[in-house]
Specification:
alpha/beta; Arc Repressor Mutant, subunit A; D-Maltodextrin-Binding Protein, domain 2; 2 domains; 7-stranded mixed β-sheet; two-stranded antiparallel sheet; 12 helices; LysR family transcriptional regulator; transcription regulation; LysR_HTH_N; WH-like_DNA-bd_sf
């Protein structure tokens, strides 16, 4: 019989690439991970890992086993969800991961609704970049997470995770209102080339927001000249207002209003927000309560059309 916990380690190795990374993510020691994977090889009766020095690679048998592991873990999540539904309504801790602008603009309404409708539920929010959220979901450190992806920075596919569309925002170029940035020679007001010579306020390298801005500018034919590195959009807009640079910001960041010193230009670019959870866990009472409250709290103008929302799918 194959041990499910060991199968989970093998799947994480397939995703993360090294035993050290698996150990770090799941709070094991590298030697413990190696021992568990060796035990799994004995259970399987075939080699699962090819070792070259300190590195390991999955054999074809291991790759096939990983594909089955996703389905096995999803059925276990579904079984756990059904058992919790039998026990009663949403209750106990619900660990939520969300990016900063969602924490500010979406979660207060969601948490207020949950407190009113499900007082036994205990939401616990952790602010984090979406790039880290799927790993923490799979590792069991989060129950749900708010993710985003951009037209120029799609999120990488993540095995074992399902997503549902929440809202879609327009991206804006935010520039000092008194800055001399004329339309480009073609007269297109939304062409990023207007700001090719400006200083730019970028997010931290490695985040989707940073990748999106750089790729959008490169698609317009230039590389943005980074002046500041700031992740909080409210702070970004304040810096723009005092002439410290140009930035790309999503609609939620400007929904509360901006300084008169900031000129906003709508761009043909979008940010898409999704709620994610482990595959099979969508029917868990606490997860379903959260997704229902989120759908009700999202600004109506930004919700995806029913035809576009589709069914929950793997991220």
């Amino acid at each position: 019989m194959l041990d499910v916990r060991r199968l989970r380690l093998l799947r994480e190795l397939a995703h993360r690439g090294t035993i050290a990374a698996v150990a770090d993510a799941l709070s094991y020691t590298p030697s413990a991970v190696s021992q568990q994977l060796s035990a799994l090889e004995r259970e399987a009766g075939v080699p699962l890992l090819e070792r070259t020095g300190r590195r390991v690679a999955l054999t074809p048998a291991a790759a096939a086993l990983v594909a089955h592991t996703d389905a096995v873990l999803a059925r276990l999540e579904q079984a756990a969800a059904e058992l919790d539904a039998v026990r009663g309504g949403p209750a106990g801790p619900l660990r939520i991961g969300a990016f900063p602008s969602a924490v500010q603009a979406l979660l207060p309404g969601v948490l207020a609704r949950l407190a009113a409708e499900h007082p036994a539920l205990e939401p616990r929010v952790a602010e984090l970049d979406p790039a880290a959220a799927t790993d923490r979901l799979r590792a069991g450190e989060l129950d749900v997470a708010l993710l985003h992806r951009y037209d120029f920075a799609p999120a990488p596919a993540a095995s074992g995770v399902q997503t549902e569309a929440v809202l879609t925002e327009t991206l804006y170029a935010a520039a000092p209102a008194d800055a001399p940035f004329p339309p480009d020679r073609g007269g297109n007001a939304d062409d990023l080339r207007r700001w090719r010579d400006a200083g730019w306020i970028l997010a931290t390298p490695g985040t989707l927001c940073h990748t999106m801005t750089v790729r959008a500018c490169e698609a317009a034919g230039f590389t943005p000249k980074a002046r500041h590195s700031v992740d909080d959009f409210a702070a970004v807009l304040r810096l723009v207002a005092v002439g410290q640079g140009v930035a790309l910001v999503p609609e939620l960041a400007v929904a509360e209003g901006t300084s008169a010193n900031v000129a906003l230009t709508a761009l043909p670019l979008r940010r898409h927000t999704e709620v994610a959870y482990r595959r099979g866990a969508g029917g868990h009472p606490a997860v379903r309560a959260f997704t229902t409250a989120l759908a009700a709290s999202a600004p109506a103008a930004l919700r995806p059309a029913a035809a576009d929302a589709g069914l929950p799918g793997e991220g």
